[in-house]
Amino acid sequence: MSMPLTTLLSGIQIMLYVGSSLLLVGSLAGLVTKSQIFSLHSILIFSGSAGKPGTRGDQPHEMRRARRVPSNRPIELMNSSGKFVANSARLRDISASGACFESPFILNQGKRIEALLHSSKEGLQRISARIIWIQPKNDRTAYGIEFVHAHRAHS
Questions:
Q1: Among the listed residues 39, 38, 49, 138, the one whose alpha carbon sits nearest the alpha carbon of residue 98
Q2: Which ranges of the chain would DSSP assign to H, the alpha helix?
Q3: Within 10 Å of residue 40's Cβ, how many Cβ atoms?
Q4: What is the pTM for the complete model shown?
Q5: How many structural domains compose the chain?
Q6: Neighbouring-strand partners of residue 130
């Protein structure tokens, strides 16, 4: 009961194709997972906290693309003159894709903002973001922003 050599080689070739495909899929899945871990890790370092993801029912949009980390760091918003105003806002939480902050300033939904975020480990970060939602409070307003661009600010 011997198999012809061509049948045996065809079977080996098919097994190699299947094995290679599985390795490729596993590698791609690993890269995606690793990139998500790195972006989350940098957010955790930036915020100085390794808190649990927040879920608040008081915010208008509850669809989250990234894990949020609570924070209470100050933000310097850029005013209409192009100058950053110290302590003009305070973070509530931050994620890889955006943040929530409170400010006494009146900003419009959809508006693009520039700001400086301070981190003891990452240094000063300059961000561009778009205001996604607004929630008025007593003397302050909560804003949900989506990051457009972020980079280390020059001192």
A1: 39
A2: 5-47
A3: 17
A4: 0.58
A5: 1
A6: 112, 146
Q: What angle do CA 6, 11, 17 make, to 5 degrees?
A: 125
CATH at 133: 2.40.10.220
What sign results for the dihedral spanned by CA atoms 22, 23, 26, 28? negative
Residue 18 belongs to domain spanning: 1-155
Torsion angle, alpha carbons of 135, 144, 94, 147, to 10? -170
Residues 6+ positions from 84 with CB-CB distance below 8 Å: 76, 77, 78, 114, 115, 116
Radius of gyration of the chain (CA): 24
pLDDT tens-digit series, residues 46-73: 444 433 333 343 444 455 567 888 999 9
Q: How far apart are CA 57 and CA 68, in angstroms?
A: 14
Distance between CA atoms of residues 148 and 126, nearest Å: 11
Q: How confident is the model at residue 82 (pLDDT cuts 50, 70, 90)?
A: confident
